[in-house]
Amino acid sequence: MVKYWGKDNVVWQDKMVEIDFPHVIHAQQFSLDDLEKLFMLTAILKQQIGKGKKKDWLNGNIVLNLIYEPSTRTMTSFSVAGLRLGADVITPADPAKLSSVIKGETLEDSIRIYADKVDVIILRHKDDDSALRASRSRFCQGVPIINAGAGKGQHPTQSLLDYFTIRERFGRIEGLIVAICGDLKHGRTSRSLAYLLSKYKGVEIYFVAPQVAQMSPDVLDYLTSHNVKWHQSETLKEVISFVDVCYMTRFQTEREDPEEKEIMAHASMVNVIDEQLAESMKDDAIIMHPLPRIHEIKWGVDKNKRSVYFLQALNGDYIRMALLLCILNPDKVEKLLASAA
Ligand code: NCD
Q1: pLDDT tens column, 36-60
Q2: Among 71, 251, 277, 289, which is least packed by CB within 10 angstroms?
Q3: Of 155, 248, 264, which is best to mutate to test ligand 1, by the most ligand atoms within 8 angstroms of its C-beta?
Q4: 177-181, strands of its sheet edge to edge
């Protein structure tokens, strides 16, 4: 089998465990070479497939969207990706409430049942280690698990579409100055993006948030050990004029402890992009957001030429098509890449 991304080791339950193709568990597992191939493939798919178009490249495969937490974009994006490539897609309604989980079934047992029936499992779940747990071989029996958001841990496919969007706009990642702003303490998209950016030379990251919502030490230590320049800043005003990318995120109220609610509500009002702040950015800078946006980007900013968050969301369909194709039909991937070379 052609492998489109390689092995990675992580510490889990005090043991070193291996993540291997075909699972997509966290952003660190992708090498520069993997990312290059994914970019090329995604660009090809974006050219060839759109509304009203359907390929038969995944005919015969069943994609399971196992979405235990709320989702607008990620869930439909995986569905659209599967359907446009010819796969069938199953999305059980609200499995957190309507599946046997409510009777006390473990994630591991549920995964074992689903793995007998489908060809790939897209998993969004409240536990930080859910995708990793699900991918341990005896549970999923080799059926690929794609992490579509694991608690406040990681959201690797979001970071891949973020990467695609940045690269599409700038033609490179190297040397860019990126501000990641919002609830960095509880947000999984900012963590995955920081890990992914750390692979590129000369990238500089500004984590912008009041101290109570700042990025966790595990990510900061990782960046330091990989020689990535990072800084912390309380306010966007300090950095907005010189960054290339301003990546906004919402405050994750559902993940806050009751005792931090008030202070977080206050912190969430500190950094808001309005029309004036957006206009003070470099001419070719971009404003990104994984969405949903709450109040951190004013609606008036949507018409600013720097705002790319809706385009970013659309790119999610194509990066997820690329991932599904790499996993389920690698021969087709080879052909597509060869024809574009
Ligand atoms: C993000 C998520 O679920 O982490 N949403 C998404 O997938 N685009 C961001 C968020 O919920 O804030």
Answers
A1: 999 999 999 999 999 999 999 999 9
A2: 71
A3: 155
A4: 229-233, 204-208, 177-181, 245-248, 286-288
